[in-house]
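Methods — Computational structure assignment.
A single polypeptide chain was analysed. Its primary sequence is given first, followed by the predicted tertiary structure written as structure tokens.
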Amino acid sequence: MSRPRIVIVGAGFAGYRTARTLSRLTRHQADITLLNPTDYFLYLPLLPQVAAGILEPRRVTVSLSGSLPHVRLVLGEADGVDLDEHTVHYTGPEGGEGTLHFDRLVLAAGSVNKLLPVPGVAEHAHGFRGLPEALYLRDHVTRQVELAAASDDREECAARCTFVVVGAGYTGTEVAAHGAMYTDAQVRKHPMRTGMRPRWMLLDVAPRVLPEMDERLSRTAERVLRQRGVDVRMGTSVKEATHDGVVLTDGTSVDTRTLVWCVGVRPDPLVESLGLPVERGRLLVDPHLQVPGRPELFACGDVAAVPDLTQPGQFTPMTAQHAWRHGKACAQNVAASLGIGERRPYHHRDLGFVVDLGGAKAAANPLGLPMSGPAAGAVTRGYHLAAMPGNRVRVAADWLLDAVLPRQAVQLGLVRSWSVPLESSSPEVARVAGRPERDAEQTAATGTTGTTGTSGTTGTTGTTGTTGKESRAEPAKNQPGAEPAKNQPGGEPAKNQPGGEPAKNQPGGEAARNQPGGEPAKNQPHPPRAAGKPRRAGDGGGTGPARGSGKARKTSRASGGGRAAAPSGPTRAAGPPADPGPEPPANQPPPGPDIAPGPVKRTDGRRAEGDS
């Protein structure tokens, strides 16, 4: 008799804990397969420290194959689930397709970014959900300070040194707190014009910072932020974003080159394709994390609406703390369904929250005891070391080195602005020119910015939006491996670069035409290799963008949708290489580090520089 097959979709807090616990419980009595777009588990709560230069990127990652030796790892993103046939269809990182068969399926796909219909945000803001975004933000902030220090224009200097963070939850608060310390340390090496210093702004429509936490901890966090010079504005959000700045809901205009979007998350839309009952996008499950009427299907983490037994009628919040605990309970119940052990309902007891504010400062309430200052800082870092499933010694070593040595403020230039768009549904994977990309998404949520979402083990998300249907965005026309612009160099300007015409399928604009993942090259010698299907985000305790309407995604038969063939990707074109065209004009500046090749046209007639 063959061993039962267990497939786990997503390797975030819930998926990783499920795989690890199941591996221990089954003891080779089942084949466990973990489907994830990356080969690592990301410890999200420490991501702000990566952006601030405290921790190296690999410190907050744990190898899946190294830490789960008895679990088969499959790299890819789930495209659809057929519950009747017991199969999961996925697309690999290089465009290849595959199918996994299961006897038990655990959905732990996590969440995606909540992109609200605020004009200009999709084009000019960046999220903070994965390593590529953290690395990009570190490079971008470093570059803005260096450019400001070298500028003779006082207004340009002020704009480059203004950093706007939207969302005062765990993620936004920690990003602003660590960012202010990082730029203050940087300007000591690159002095600004007389009387000028970096300015950080933290915005949220909520009445206070960290609205999910105890009010005393909120006051502690706000006090620390204001002491560091952060401009905290509650009851305020972004009304419109442009290349040169933002317009706030109170009518204020702020000149800036940096907009960090930490507004919240919503469940991964994969669950809606199943055609099963959902609660605000989350798959309804019983207290045993099993889908009613589907004994083979379990769900945990941000995609699951798990009944909160401590508060009847409520569901557990979308936090990494709950996702981590969901994983253990889910593994026990999956094993019990195979005759190993007994079923157990999910029941939790809050042990408190911790928020790292940088340096020796933090806000924490372990076991309900409010703390602040160095004591809270010690508790916070101790908690993270205990909660991490690996790399504890390396993380502690980086903390020690940061305490005695200055940080290295350098631009590596590994992640460009166009490779980490806010509308990306896979923030854990940076876009690569010429590779098939998943569709840009469009949010179905309405209204102004909501309360921010979580940043890992310590947060609760804000309001979640509804899910739109998936669409396939039009491929880029002037990216490497794609069709060249009609008159490049010196030809038709790019239409969705900072300062140019807005994108068609973004809030208030025209569809993007020159981003990676574009139309197949007609005469290029090296077009993209493989045809790809839309890619899915893995579970990260919450993270990816909104999905737009258009062609229907592949759905399960249980939903009655049948399987729709995905459009084929670019193919290799025959014929000689395209004529590179004439030499660019002498006065044409080279593309900046974050702008796709080609000239950029601004609506105000001026030439754009830098990135959004």
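Note: The mean pLDDT is 77.
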